[in-house]
Amino acid sequence: MSLLGLWRELEAATKDAVPSQADHRDALIAGLHPKQQAFVLDTARRKCALAGRRAGKTWAVAVWLLLDTRPGELSVFIARTTGHARRILWQTLRRINDRYQLGYRFREDISTAVSPDGYRIWLTGAKDFSEVEKLRGDRYWKVGIDEAGSIPSALLKYLIDDILDPALMDLDGELVLIGSPGIVPAGIFFERSTGEGKAAMWPTHTWTCVDNPHVRGARYLKRKLRENNWTEDNPTYQREYLGCWYKDIEALVYPYLSAVNKAGEVPRLDYIAVAIDFGATQAKPTTAFTVGGIQRGRRETWILRSFKVAGMIPSSIAGLAEQLLREHGAKMLVVDEGALGRGYAQEMRISYNLPVVAAEKSKKRAFQELFGGNLRSGIVKVVESECQDLLDEWEVGQWLEDRSEEDPSYEWHCADTAIYLERYLRAHYDHRNDLPELSEADKQRAEMAAAKDKARAEMQRQNRGKSKELHRKYAGR
User: Fold this and answer.
1) CATH number for the domain harbouring residue 131
2) Is residue 441 part of a domain?
3) 4: exposed, middle or buried (C-beta count within 10 Å: 0-12, 13-18, 19+)?
4) DSSP state at residue 266
5) H-helix or E-strand containing 122?
6) For residue range 401-460, what is the model confidence (pLDDT) as tens digits?
7) What is the pLDDT of residues 229-259, one digit of tens each?
8) Which of 180, 213, 248 is a domain's end point?
């Protein structure tokens, strides 16, 4: 047989081995309930899916990734971590593959499902700025971002605008934001799924467990309301089971409300300090600076500026700290001396002669509650236009489920500097140090008044002594 004949025979055998998409498409779609079908068949290149618990969101996303594929191309499913992505989708992809005999191979070592024609579905995480950089370079056919409401808004925006949109350009690929609503109705996922805020709305599909024929959704929801003594307007019920955006500020570590905490006109502050939380990564902004102060005779703490910078070395940190001291008339640098911070702080003291004090970090959990109370009561005021990095962290930063501590999967750099600053200002500021210097005439009057007070006190002491002596003298008669 000629070489051409062998090639044609191999090509025919390969073609026969590859399952036809048309053979499976109708079956995959038929296995979805109507609202899942509407989501999967929506041809919009950008769209959202909001679904409550047990609604069948994971199955719908898996079918979307497996439907209308392209040979040799790559699609991605992104969750907060690779572990989350695997727990959410890996077994579902396997079940669909087995049920419909799609012929996928599952590469456990690289968390990738590979079809017979070379189409791949990669499961990965996006927990921080440094991790999303690994998504650069490739081109993608489909990208699904799950748990979108739990990803910090700044990170999600960077992931979409800087990393994924350019990677989807070659194939005019699809991007989907998926998940239950976040705790706070704000950020990119909220804006894209509602049309509120700065971003335009994407086509958004919603459904609940009541729409899922494979579970008894209505009965389940009634039981959840009864077991937890909830009403239907309970934030958790609305968010987790009905897939509705609903503000649940009590689940946040720092319950910021613009109507309560937004600073109006900032008064003249009597004492200002700068708090610093050190970081060293090149791609991810981790070195945080927060500037704030207080006014004599008032309870408010005013946060004037808060931001993060990437890739800073000790000399650049010292230079920026000195600039902030000068610009704001600040008296002290309050720094986190944990880990590498101790060396950075010593360098700032010795080499740059900067006024540095170690941040108080003991009993952090108790002070977070105190700070949260100050936010609720409006004692903390924030200049919002200068503190977006801080507000982004406060917007999504949650407690662990048992409320024992903050959830470490969120960023806390600016948030930590804010409480360092508040603790320092309240503990170390003595308004008597800011009393204006007296004129010579005022000093003389003050000295005369003090002398009179002293003479008066001495006379009262002598009179008390005479009274006691007379009392003893006549009491003995």
Assistant:
1) 3.40.50.300
2) no
3) exposed
4) P
5) strand 120-125
6) 778 899 887 889 999 999 999 999 988 665 555 445 556 666 666 677 677 777 777 777
7) 998 888 888 888 888 888 777 788 999 988 9
8) 248
